[in-house]
Specification:
heterotetramer, A alpha/beta (about 500), B alpha/beta (about 325), C mainly alpha (about 325), D mainly alpha (about 350), C: mainly alpha, ABC transporter involved in vitamin B12 uptake, BtuC, two-stranded antiparallel sheet, about 75% helix, globular, D: about 350 residues, mainly alpha
Chain lengths: ~500, ~325, ~325, ~350
């Protein structure tokens, strides 16, 4: 029987219509995947179900009654709890508090910390996590934090659990742990909404799939009745053939003669952070950085781009030697290096500036404050990339915060392409991005390589790496454990190295 | 963890180490000054400091920066230090009972300077040195009646709202001119004892509908008067002629203006209280009875009794 | 491992403040006679009780990620209110209750403006400061003394505990210590207290975790309003008078005290107990200057400035170091 | 008399009409939205005077051939707030705040006066040194905030406290009075019938505008204020941007200090610019710049300054006790900010009564 029914839900922000008349229903004891491209309205629908937003139109029926949810805690009280895509916890507070906040066990009206810690431990134990619960959350890795977030939502008596991209920052094992927990909970009669971009994950755990596109519901299907390709084509509104053609890339470029060395790292190291690293990158080729989460991939990227300074070894980019002490992003940009960093929200998006300003930002920065790009030229650049990357925005003057996650990501890519880089570092560029955009971005990177640009490609999805890179550097425990090239680049080899 | 331990230990140490204040031979005087807001104030501070040096008295000086709470802290500190006499130039007249009682309990006499305080019982302070501002207000009023006459429209630049001198100088002046129906205060507005405010407010006076009736300005201190003089000049009028200017304190600058004919009269409020103060202190230390009231010599200055010498004689 | 590391990161700024306080105290004790006495120590509490209570309120608001500039003005206002009411022959106890109520309402009003219309706290409380200051002048332009008041006299004469050789532990410092204690318990052991920390750390996350952000904020400012009002009453007891010019710029002292105590202005980090040492340290600096006894007013200002600077530097340094260690 | 009254009335009406007109224009154009509510407030002020105190609008041309009247005073006195607000706006845009400007004013005035009364008295030297010192003061703030990473409010608190002390140290605690026609002109002179301070403020405003809008400095400042990490990742020298704004703020404060000190022909270390930092911040926020940083509006800040000064001038003109002026000021500030806040407007405008009033949330 149904536990949740939404009828005719619509929601609009300013000119942007995020949801149009969505009917959605959910049964108790099922895991229900919510699929769709970025901007399809998944997050918005979730936020409405959890009372963060109020729908412009439509009604919500939950657990036997019509509900008007004005706040997340109202939702929580009736048994809807959520784990969001970006970890939304409180880094400066202890793990215990992050789990118990708002429902602390009391003794004479005062918080009973002893009991609270006990509960926190129990909640984490369910996920087979064993950590010091009185330490600050900030002192743990993102993966742990993500698990803490899930533990928090399991801690309450909930009837509906919403997992919005919970696995995007988990590695294989953690993900499988999570799936076991999910199945376990389902069997206890809990309803779970699961949002992800990893298709195989959908088929691994989900019973039913609801697909959204451009704010409208495409349909709800049983997972077993819906072939992968069909689902994808429904999501992106393209036919299966198109998708096939998108996925593949011809390996001709790997056969072509290697260009000159554009990036050279010798014993590159930042003590206690990452290294020593040794690898080369030839113009017009792609090198992949493979490794589990926390294996030092992002740290390496930051090192190359001068966010963090290396304290040993030799780094040479585009013929310019990066000086230990003075290497910084501005210099990196000068030698035609670009970094599209992992944490979009923190390191990329300037929410209150317009799309145009966000796009020209890096280019302008490289030119320096004093010679401003003429307005007409700015508009041209913005228009060009909005077209090229097919960014969904009403106008270049729209504020970036009003765009969906995927489109924000595209804007950031545009920002760096605008600087005409010769070497671009893509750190999880497809994280939290739907298959359509993913394919587009992959296609784009290929074109870039063909055009003679080199790419350092960081991804937790080995398929992507294997497919795209002629050369793979494998990291483990913040150290380089090996390098594969040409035909050796296979899933098996990489996994072997990662496993060690 | 050490931190916490030492934290616990500290009070204990104190309890153990309480010792009586041993009295030394040299006289120690604690002086709590209001602040350093004007040349006048600075002069009075200087006179006390220099006099102390001259007489070999150890002076504990504390500047309250216009805050009563600071003065209370200072007096408590003086008591704790075990000074022989406490001198106090109170920033306000109210709220001194408790601390004065404490001083009495520690039998340290308190001498007030240039302002009285109102307290619930007598004998909380030993002596008061200085004219009261009310009297200065009266003097200003009388000078007006004698020299300008019984017909005048008066604009008043009040001091900082609520501050002692402002209240008293207003009161005194009003008392003095009460008898004269011809003397009306047309405009009265606070200039906060500062030149900039004095100037800004005067500008507004000179733009008000009643501007043509104003022919006397009474400013609660010289600084505001000096600001007002500029405003009057900018309005194209002649300060001292078109508008008679009376003010209080008697600082060098206003004398220059009077000599130049741009101002007319200033009621002196003598800041050089050092000698008077330490006379009293020494009499007390000799064990003699001290006078309850000492009035420093104070003049009313106008064009008749100001000469270059007088100006050069001024240190402030 | 983590257990061992946790001490520095969390408690370092606070511990540093305590260390500096003790150091300064030692210096005073060595260099001035009659400094290392119980009287001086008790005076520290007696003379700064009102500041301390205000600092508790400010601390709570800052922990919630806001700021309160209205403190000084509200103190003056409550003082005037109590003075006026008693002058009008209203029972003092009642007057005090009214004043407290007004304080709370004032705080809640500010909180509402900030929380439900997301106006910047700095601005709203600045407006509050103007309002309260102006209000106290409207009540009466000059100071009102509350002499011969049975209640206050009773408080003064009976509610005190002799500690020998003329030193008394009086009502107001006790009140301060009680308020401080309540504050600590409130922030560390009550759900609301933790919510205040939560919204201080990250409002968005807190909201998503089901914290009623708006209500919590309003509460925080309400409590701050209460503290300011109470500080005002303590100050009135301390002075036996109300004065519209009282405590101008006190909010800055309170903020300085809180910051010195190791609470970050960005909110969510720090401990109320720190504010105690912040307050005591500020008081101590003044006492040291008074004991030294011939420092120009301008030097006083400069020295205080420098000392505040030193504190901040030291805290930054130590915090950075301990971060590195982690 | 009658004649002059009607003249006042005409001036008043024109002033009012100008305000109202620009209100509607700003309401229409996307670019000047932020100016609308301050303008409404200003219009109301003028309307009040037009009805109850037409003499407020009295304007005369003096024998020396410059305009003279309350309106000019507003212009004249608001210029010092405007100067501070110009610098403050940029600082606030980076997500900071500078509460030391009042003290910096005092320092700058003290330096200038000391030079003027010294044997090497010269206008150039005085102005140069004063501005140099205040710029250095700004640099000091900048270093504390940008390099040492201290929270802006605490960092500038240091100079706010110590600054007046330093100023007094320079003047040795006295109020230095001087007579130096050339220097006095800075605060009292007139140019084309208008007071010099107003011209100064206008110039600085235009310079700031040019610096931020014809170059990309503005964009960078807004970026840093909006998301500092991202700014760094985009290759913007965030630190440099931040301390530049503090330096500029210090410079502006320096000029304001010169204006005040020359206006009253003396350096009063205790009172020069006391609490003026608050007015500057108010002006900035009234002008529509958010205290959390990001977008900034210089024109708004100038208007805010004028509005604040207009309020107190009107109060003086109506013999309101200055201690009480705080109250209407507070109300005005809160009111304008409420109207600036989208949430408030969207709630109010939801009421049918306001539907037609052109206030769709922007």
């Amino acid at each position: 029987m149904d536990i949740l029914r939404t009828t005719g839900i619509s929601k609009s922000f300013g000119e942007v219509q995020a949801l149009k008349d969505v009917d959605f229903s959910l049964e108790a004891g099922e895991i229900h995947a919510l699929m769709g491209e970025n901007g399809a309205g998944k997050s918005t629908l979730v936020k409405i179900i959890t009372g963060v937003y109020q729908p412009t139109n439509g009604s919500i029926w939950f657990d036997g009654a019509d509900r008007r949810l004005n706040s997340p805690q109202e939702a929580e009280q009736i048994g809807i709890s959520t784990v969001y895509q970006e970890v939304n916890l409180l880094p400066d507070l202890s793990v215990t508090e992050n789990i118990c906040l708002g429902r602390e066990p009391r003794k004479f009206g005062f918080i009973d910390w002893k009991a609270a810690k006990e509960r926190a431990r129990k909640a984490l134990a369910k996920l087979e996590v064993d950590i010091d619960v009185s330490a600050n959350l900030a002192s743990y890795s993102i993966a742990i934090q993500q698990l803490v977030a899930i533990a928090r939502s399991l801690d309450v008596e909930c009837k509906l659990l919403i997992l919005d991209e919970p696995t995007s920052s988990l590695d294989e094992n953690e993900t499988h742990q999570l799936f076991q927990i999910m199945r376990h909970l389902r069997d206890q009669g809990l309803a779970i909404i699961f949002i992800t971009h990893f298709l195989d994950q959908v088929y691994e755990v989900c019973d039913r799939i609801t697909i959204l596109r451009d704010g409208c519901k495409v349909g709800t299907f049983r997972a077993c009745d819906l072939p992968r390709v069909e689902m994808v084509s429904k999501m992106i509104g393209k036919s299966a053939e198109e998708i096939d053609s998108m996925g593949h890339r011809d390996f001709s470029s790997s056969e072509q003669a290697l260009g000159p060395v554009i990036l050279k790292a010798e014993n590159l190291e930042s003590r206690g952070v990452v290294g020593p690293l040794n690898f080369e990158l030839h113009a017009g080729s792609q090198v992949g950085l493979a490794g589990l989460l926390g294996s030092g991939r992002t740290e390496t990227a930051n090192l190359l781009f001068g966010i963090a300074s290396h304290d040993a070894g030799h780094l040479e980019i585009n013929g310019k030697v990066a000086n230990k002490s003075t290497w910084n992003p501005r210099k990196a940009v000068k030698v035609r290096l670009a970094l599209i960093a992992e944490d979009r929200k923190l390191t990329g998006v300037i929410p209150d500036l317009t799309v145009r300003e966000n796009i020209i930002l890096a280019l302008q920065a490289s030119k320096g404050a004093l010679n401003q790009i003429p307005r007409r030229q700015q508009d041209q650049i913005a228009e060009e990339y909005i077209r090229r990357l097919d960014i969904k925005t009403p106008s270049p003057e729209q504020l970036l915060k009003n765009l969906s996650g995927g489109n924000q990501q595209k804007v950031l890519i545009a920002r760096w392409l605008a600087t005409k880089p010769e070497l671009i570092i893509l750190d999880e560029p497809t994280r939290g991005i739907d298959i359509g955009a993913k394919a587009e971005i992959e296609a784009l990177t290929d074109d870039l390589c063909k055009a003679g640009m080199s790419v350092v490609f960081i991804s937790s999805e080995l398929e992507e790496i294997v497919q795209d890179c002629q050369r793979v550097v494998v990291l483990r425990d913040r150290r380089q454990v090996g390098e594969l090239a040409g035909t050796d680049v296979t899933m098996k080899n990489i996994l072997k190295m990662i496993a060690g | 963890m050490k931190k916490y331990l030492s934290l616990l230990i500290l009070p204990l140490l104190l309890l153990v180490s309480c010792k009586k204040a041993d009295s030394s031979k040299t006289i120690t005087v604690g002086f709590s000054q209001i602040g350093a807001e004007s040349d006048w104030r600075k002069a009075s501070t200087l006179s006390i400091k220099e006099e102390a040096k001259k007489r070999g008295i150890e002076l504990k000086f504390s500047d309250a920066q216009q805050k009563q709470e600071n003065q209370l802290k200072a007096i408590r500190a003086f008591i704790a230090q075990g000074v022989d006499v406490i001198a106090l130039a109170p920033v306000v007249t109210t709220g001194w009972d408790d601390v004065l009682k404490e001083a009495r309990a520690a039998n340290i006499p308190v001498i007030l300077i240039d302002r009285r305080v109102d307290v619930s019982e007598d004998g909380l302070y030993a002596c008061y040195i200085g004219a009261d501002c009310t009297e200065e207000g009266r003097k200003a009023g009388r000078w007006l009646i004698e020299n300008v006459g019984k017909q005048a429209g008066i604009a008043e630049l009040v001091g900082t709202v609520g501050s002692g001198p402002a209240v008293e100088r207003k009161k005194g002046f009003e008392e003095a001119i009460k008898g004269e129906p011809g003397l009306k205060i047309i405009k009265s507005q606070s200039g906060d004892f500062t030149r900039s405010q004095g100037k800004e407010v005067m500008e507004q006076f000179l733009k008000s509908p009643e501007r043509d009736q104003i022919n006397v300005l009474y400013a609660h201190n010289d600084d505001m008067a000096l600001g007002a003089i500029q405003a009057i000049e900018e309005a194209g009028k002649k300060p001292g002629k078109d508008i008679v200017i009376i003010s209080c304190d008697g600082v060098k600058e206003i004398f220059r203006q009077i000599l130049a004919g741009k101002a007319n009269c200033t009621v002196e409020c003598n800041p050089m209280v050092g000698p008077y103060l330490f006379d009293v202190v020494e009499t007390y230390m000799r064990g003699e009875t001290i006078p309850p009231r000492v009035i420093p010599h104070e003049d009313v200055f106008d064009a008749r009794n100001i000469t270059q010498e007088v100006i050069d004689g001024r240190s402030y | 491992m983590l257990k061992r590391l946790r001490f520095p990161i969390r408690y370092v700024p606070f511990a540093a403040t305590v260390a500096v306080f003790i150091g300064a105290y030692a210096i005073g004790a060595i260099s001035f006679k009659n400094f290392f006495t119980l009287r001086v120590f008790v005076n520290l509490f007696h003379d700064n009780a009102y500041l301390g209570i205000a600092a508790v309120g400010t601390g709570i608001v800052i922990l919630s990620g806001g700021i309160d500039l209205s403190v000084g003005a509200v103190i003056a206002f409550t003082g005037m209110l109590v003075a006026k009411l008693t002058a009008c022959g209203i029972n003092t106890g009642l007057a005090i209750l009214i004043a407290l109520a007004v304080g709370i309402l004032f705080g809640i009003l500010q909180g509402t403006l900030i929380a439900s219309f997301d106006l910047p706290p700095f601005l709203v409380t600045l407006g509050g400061m103007f309002l309260a200051r102006g209000g106290s002048f409207i009540i009466n332009e000059e100071a009102l003394s509350i002499l011969k008041n049975p209640v206050l006299d009773f408080i003064e004469d009976n509610l005190q505990l002799s500690l020998g050789n003329g030193v008394y532990l009086e009502c107001i410092e006790v009140v301060y210590l009680i308020v401080l204690l309540c504050g600590i318990v409130f922030t560390q052991w009550t759900p609301l207290g933790r919510r205040i920390y939560a919204i201080g750390v990250n409002e968005q996350s807190a909201l998503l975790m089901g914290v009623p952000v708006a209500r919590t904020k309003i509460m925080a400012y309400g409590i701050a309003g209460f503290c300011s009002a109470l500080a005002g009453i303590v100050f009135t007891v301390y002075l036996k008078s109300g004065n519209p010019l009282n405590c101008i710029g006190l909010e800055m002292d309170a903020i300085a005290a809180v910051v010195i105590g190791g609470i970050l202005l960005t909110g969510g980090v720090g401990y109320l107990l720190g504010s105690l040492f912040g307050v005591l340290t500020l008081g101590l600096i003044q006492v040291l200057i008074m004991f030294q006894g011939n420092i120009n007013s301008w030097w006083t200002r400069i020295i205080i400035g420098i000392l505040v600077l030193l504190f901040i530097f030291m805290q930054n340094l130590i915090t950075k170091l301990s971060d590195k260690k982690q | 008399m009658n004649n002059s009254q009607s003249l006042n009335f005409i001036i008043g009406i024109t002033a009012l009409l100008v305000c109202v007109a620009s209100t509607f224009i700003s309401g229409r154009s996307q670019k000047f939205r932020h100016l609308r509510w301050p303008l409404v407030a200003l219009s109301l002020l003028f309307l009040y005077n037009l009805i109850f105190k037409p003499t407020f609008f009295a304007l005369e041309i003096t024998d020396d051939g410059y305009l003279y009247g309350s309106l000019i005073d507003i212009l004249n006195h608001s210029s010092k707030i405007a100067l501070l607000a110009t610098g403050m706006t940029l600082v606030i845009a980076t997500g900071g705040v500078d509460i030391s400007v009042g003290s910096i004013m005092a320092i700058s005035g003290a330096v200038a006066a000391t030079v003027i009364v010294s044997p090497y008295s010269s206008l150039i030297l005085a102005v140069f040194l004063a501005l140099l010192v205040s710029t250095l003061a700004g640099l000091w703030n900048g270093i504390l905030v940008a390099a040492c990473g201290i929270q802006p409010m605490v960092a500038t608190l240091v100079l706010m406290v110590a600054g007046r002390g330093i100023a007094q140290l320079i003047t040795d605690g006295t109020i230095i009075t001087f007579h130096h026609p050339a220097f006095n002109a800075i605060g009292n002179g007139h140019l084309l019938g208008l007071p010099v301070p107003a011209w100064l403020a206008a110039t600085i405003f235009l310079i700031a505008l040019a610096l931020t809008r014809t170059t990309s400095l503005g964009l960078f400042i807004e970026t840093v204020g909006n998301n500092r990490t991202a700014a760094r990742y985009a290759g913007i020298a965030a630190r440099k941007i931040v301390w530049i704004t503090y330096v500029f703020s210090g410079f502006c404060a320096g000029i304001a200090g010169l204006v005040v000190c020359s206006n009253i022909k003396c350096a009063d270390a205790n009172h020069a610019g006391l609490y003026l930092e608050l007015d500057a911040i108010l002006a900035t926020v009234i002008g529509g710049t958010s205290m959390t940083g990001g977008r900034f509006y210089l024109s708004g800040s100038i208007l805010g300054a004028i509005l604040i000064q207009a309020l107190s001038t009107v109060m003086y003109a109506n013999d309101v006790n200055p201690a009480v002026i705080a109250v209407p000021k507070a109300i005005l500030v809160i009111a304008v900010c409420l109207l600036q806040s989208d949430r408030f407007r969207s709630r109010i405008m939801a009421l049918p009564v306001f539907r037609k009033f052109g206030g769709e949330p922007c």
